[in-house]
Records
---
Amino acid sequence: MSLTWVDGVAADTVPADDRGLNYADGAFETLSCQDGRIQHEDLHRSRLTRALAALGVPSAAKQSERLFEEAGQCLETAGHTGVARLTVTRGSGPRGYSPPVPPQLRSILRASARPNSSLSANTSTGHIANSRAPTVTRSKRSSTRCCTSWSGLRSFCCSHPGQSFSPC
């Protein structure tokens, strides 16, 4: 059995004009949950904040805090144990690649049982959508290294000289 919430409300549909559906315009976190509590929530929140900032979302930290508070309430109310995927998109918008300014974020939370796989038992990940086949590049204007997607969109996993760097 799985449970789904859209913007904190139990739902089973997402509007067809959602930018996450049409353009993979958003980010997600895969969460491990125990008795309604998100495991390592602070790490997930921090990573989502970085992803939202990379997408140009104003007040990324405040938005991330709000989204995790909303997700936590849903999962706690359900007493969920298993995994959950928190997807955040820039919401509904007109056709075209230019995102709406400011974006009206939409959250999609789907909770389900833990998969029967030893590889996924303790896995939690976060990604910016549309980040297939990442490559490492160095900015021409600085020595900052960035992980970019196959389509050339900049991802959130940038580092500064002297810091460790791991691909997306």
---
Amino acid sequence: MNILPESTHLGILKITNVYEYFDIPCLFSCENNSGQIFIAVWIDETENDNEWLYVPVSKVRLKQITSGNIDLRDTFLKSEDNFVLKVTLSKQDENSQVETIVCSEISEEYLPEANQFIESNLQTSSVTRKDSLKQKAIALQREILKITLDFSNIYSSCKNEAPLKELGNILVSLQELFNAIGQLKKGVSTANGSVSQEIKAEARFNIMAVSSGSFVTEIAAAESGNLFNESLANEIIEEFIQVINSSENQEELTKIIKKFKIRAARKYRDFLIKLQTAGTQLKIDWESPIPNKGGSVFLKETTINNALMIINQVQPEPPQIINVTGTLIGGNKRSKRFEIEDDNDRKTYKGAIAQTALNSSVILTLDKRYEFVLEETKKINPSTNEVSCTYKLIRLKLLTKE
């Protein structure tokens, strides 16, 4: 029985490894004379033919598959080149037919079930530093960042090392920034509280490799994208690259910080502070499995300092109007200050009284219940990097007893 196609554009093939065998090799890798590698799985048998599904893979991708980092379903469904090959071998003669199938059009019956992996006893390794960043992104079908830091300005003995605390702080703040941008892209941005586990999972990046010199850390999105490699991680990195590119321009950075809203703005500020404290510049190289996406950005120390000055002057979100029904428990017309307690949750609000409220015909009386209209302004505290809220009493209406 023929196992390999002959006289096709796949070239002269030879089997390199058999991963499953049942009467014939059912799952194997093969290679042609020009070095192109394929993984093949037996998908069907008829009276006249045997049918196989072939997927071309790079050496980098093959390492990931045989290391158990990519399951068999995604091996075919998320092919590096977005196509697979259906190979039909005749049982009667040596005729072979090869049909190209776009990944999005692969029949479900051809695909292995999810979470099935190649069990290889071969010595395998994960992606190596010698592989280019683009190769890795395509092979893994994930977003990859190479982060280059230089701590030698402050830590002169650390040319080939990185101070653990400072490096850890930078990476933690970077992940928190990604979480905040992810929340923003999902349209559920909040100033405080925790980010949902679903968003955290999609925004999570893992460390892939670390090297010395100017200290280099490679990180990859924990999850791959859909069939078109679209993912929340990709959207996050695009926003991240954009804000870094805008950090020298006050007008552009101001626009982005306002678009970021309070949480993402605060997290970007915290990330810059961590870089500033560590005394390091930053270079980011980005590669994506999506064609024509990727690039490099650089943050100099002067840019970091300038960006922090700009952010400190920007109010990320416009004031919001909130309505509160409660009791006036403190007030002073001379100092134009008020304090109220919300009937619902007993939360207290303190702040300034606007002239419009002072000029109204409503008399401010302690321990009376009112409908209050407050203007809430959220700010980033430059000292603590925490969110603080200020309130202004704009209007009020005395509630009569029922």
